[in-house]
Design a protein that fits this description.
The structure is a single chain. By secondary structure, the protein is of the alpha+beta class. The protein has one domain: Nucleoside diphosphate kinase-like domain (Alpha-Beta Plaits, 2-Layer Sandwich). The chain contains seven helices and four strands, in the order βααβααβααβα. It has helices spanning 11-15, 19-28, 43-49, 59-66, 81-89, 102-106, 121-132; strands at residues 2-9, 32-39, 71-79, 115-117. The chain has a four-stranded antiparallel sheet with strand order 2-3-1-4, sandwiched between helices. Helix 3 (43-49) crosses helix 4 (59-66). The radius of gyration is 14 Å and the shape is globular. It starts with a strand and ends with a helix. Bound molecules: uridine-5'-diphosphate and magnesium ion. Uridine-5'-diphosphate (UDP) is lined by residues 53, 58, 62, 92, 110-111, 113, 116, 119.
Length: 133
């Protein structure tokens, strides 16, 4: 089933100058890029985007990090886009992520893990509307 997902190249990866390599991987994996933009989230926007994690101990640090510099947000389409993009990203903690995944390749820590991906159709719908209205 063709579906859509929301991907983010996080501020750590933008600072590291690996936007191009991550977009190359997205194209190599067969995704259509339907939307792409650079955004510097405000702290309030980051808090809204990650609201589902508001009670987690990492919420404040995560939302500070996500508003610390520009990100690149992408609207992606593919067969099984949500699951496939999460496989390409790898586990949340780069140290646990399999070789060949983007987080293993470019992530720095469990927080600064280079990329984001929606985790369900409902989340994808919310996240796509958040950035691409
Ligand atoms: N995160 C963190 N500490 C943790 C778990 C997560 O800083 O212990 C951050 C990390 O940047 C992660 C984001 O919070 O990507 C959202 O967490 P989630 O559990 O949804 O992981 P994901 O879906 O991104 O793999
Ligand atoms: Mg998640």
């Amino acid at each position: 089933m063709t579906e859509r997902t929301l991907a983010i190249i996080k501020p750590d990866a933008v600072r590291k100058k690996v936007i191009g390599r991550i977009i190359q991987r997205i194209e190599d994996e067969g995704f259509e890029i339907l939307g792409l933009k650079m955004v510097h989230l405000t702290r309030e926007e980051a808090r809204k985007f990650y609201y589902v994690h508001k009670d987690k101990p990492f919420y404040e640090s995560l939302t500070d990090f996500m508003s610390s510099g520009p990100s690149v947000v992408l609207l992606l389409e593919r067969e099984n886009a949500i699951k496939h993009w999460r496989e390409v990203m790898g586990a949340t903690d780069p140290a646990q992520a399999r070789p060949g995944t983007l987080r293993r390749q470019f992530g720095f820590s469990i927080e600064r893990n280079a990329v984001h991906g929606s985790d369900s159709p409902q989340t994808a719908e919310y996240e796509i509307a958040f950035f691409f209205g």
